[in-house]
């Protein structure tokens, strides 16, 4: 019963899109299953009904849900359906995440406003990103993207720019720009220079 709510909810959102196109229920449910795994990676006791409530009341999980739907459409070559999900993510969540970026289980967005994850990035398990963060390239439309390890956290207004490798368990502090490779288990904070603590 709860899963029909999530399908109905997406169809409701699609009414905001000019000349929207229907999305197969199987893609919606596959995306929702991934969101459940994302949330339970960090919050194991949160059940599906609560996750649906969070999505439908525009909490952090809404942006996750829209990304996971867009990613499902991308992986299934439904290019004609992706633009409307991209529009909804920008319109409702104020963030932009390219669907050709691969983000493993445990992805979580905290206060997603202003967050941009550009194209062709590969991100591991347990990735947490806060508001106004950017993961991008040095040149638009070129490059292989960044490779980010498992359990990396980015705090507000931080950025990763380049074609970089970020190791597992890295914490990137608020207002920090990363433009060099970072080894695993480092905490990076904003100073007048890149500093490893």
UniProtKB/TrEMBL annotation:
InterPro entries for the chain: Hexapep (IPR001451), Trimer_LpxA-like_sf (IPR011004)
Ranges in a coiled coil: none
Domain of life: Bacteria
Alphabetized Pfam families for the sequence: Hexapep
Protein name: Serine O-acetyltransferase
Organism: Winogradskyella flava
